[in-house]
């Protein structure tokens, strides 16, 4: 309010009324300010000191929209008029308007522009920084949640596992609770018979019959589905192929299990049978012929049949563990979780090379040099068939020598648990094969069978025999040796008869 009151004082000091005031503008002249009267002739000099700056000013009244000038002139300014090029009053609504500026005739025009009052800024106090406790909570909370989730998952996994999952083969499994129905027929698990890579096999009762139930965990769904699809192949039925009954899903979500129900054979696998039993020559021929017959049917492509075309199928995990025995020792082939079909015009599906049981892998499988063609996969099965035939010969009583304890192929050469590198070195690089005993070669039938075995596991895959050829050879060997044995038996019988019919010399009579 200082400037308006000062202007009012100036008006009062001059003693000039509003109507009589002469308007003056400021002009800088000879380093001094002077006032020019615009309504009179001549100049009225406004002296000032050279060390101080002089400015122009104007004061006026604004009554009901009518501007009435009060005073214009020079002003020895010691306050806020520096560097102002225009004369502008900034007070909001004063009694007398006043403005000042710097420059010639800068007060010729004057105006009123009140300064805009900026709204008050509310200064927010600074936010407090996070506390150490908060930092620890936010840091450890994700770890705590993750740990809780892992514990919960482990607990759920152990809770969902049925009791029979923890039973070893040598333990008494007991009777599990009643199972759901198979085709509206009650199915009751009875006894755990085997445990393998893709699940476990149970003996079960379906009405009055025994069946085998192979149970896959949910993570092995692909193997279960593949085996089911192989069994459901059109026209896939043979006396030397395990009879399929059904495939089912049991439970939901994490508790789901996959069941495969098949025919049950009390004698179990060929491996288990050879561990506890020896075989005679006729038994060896019967098992070998039926086993090779089943493999020949598996490999055969039968496009023209009344019951539907059957594609060629490679087993890819052929071994004595996957050959089951009926009560009369007829062999049936089982476990088609890795099998692959070769249908005309369709891709064979999953054909990863290095699959199967390591001990039974062919040389080309061990070194990863497989030709992904149908015949290449069938020849891999033939290599494994040679090893299984060797297992049979090693437990046969036909030779004159002793029968040793049952051994897996290459167990003597590389041990019971060989690594892939061990087998690569023995089978691929050194071209080793299980050894034939001398007493086997001395028996005519075993000697011929050993020659067939050698042609099955030949290092050159293309030189291996087919399953159908092996079946014919075994049949021929069996017949020829049975004829030889029959003729030999008849010769011995005739010799005994002739000796018994010869009259004994009479006893000397006493005289």
UniProtKB/TrEMBL annotation:
**What are the required cofactors?**
Mg(2+); Mn(2+)
Where does the Protein kinase domain lie?
187-477
What enzyme class is recorded for this protein?
Answer: transferase
Q: Which GO terms describe its molecular function?
A: activin binding; activin receptor activity; ATP binding; metal ion binding
User: Which reactions is this enzyme annotated as catalysing?
Assistant: L-seryl-[receptor-protein] + ATP = O-phospho-L-seryl-[receptor-protein] + ADP + H(+); L-threonyl-[receptor-protein] + ATP = O-phospho-L-threonyl-[receptor-protein] + ADP + H(+)
Could you tell me where this protein is found in the cell? Membrane
Look up the EC number in the record and give it: 2.7.11.30
- One Pfam family, short name please? Activin_recp
SUPFAM superfamilies in the cross-refs: Protein kinase-like (PK-like) (SSF56112), Snake toxin-like (SSF57302)
User: Record's InterPro entries?
Assistant: Activin_recp, Kinase-like_dom_sf, Prot_kinase_dom, Ser/Thr_kinase_AS, Snake_toxin-like_sf, TGFB_receptor
Membrane topology according to the record = Single-pass type I membrane protein
Question: Per the database entry, which stretches of residues form a coiled coil?
Answer: none
* Chief location: membrane
**What keywords would UniProt list here?**
ATP-binding, Disulfide bond, Glycoprotein, Kinase, Magnesium, Manganese, Membrane, Metal-binding, Nucleotide-binding, Receptor, Serine/threonine-protein kinase, Signal, Transferase, Transmembrane, Transmembrane helix
The signal peptide here is: 1-19
Question: Which Gene Ontology terms of cellular component type are present?
Answer: activin receptor complex; plasma membrane
Q: Which GO terms describe its biological process?
A: activin receptor signaling pathway; cellular response to growth factor stimulus; pattern specification process
Residue ranges of the TM segments: 132-155
State the family it belongs to: Belongs to the protein kinase superfamily. TKL Ser/Thr protein kinase family. TGFB receptor subfamily.
Can you name this protein? Serine/threonine-protein kinase receptor
Q: Which organism is it from?
A: Danio rerio (Zebrafish)
Lineage of producing organism? Eukaryota, Metazoa, Chordata, Craniata, Vertebrata
**Encoding gene per record:** acvr2bb
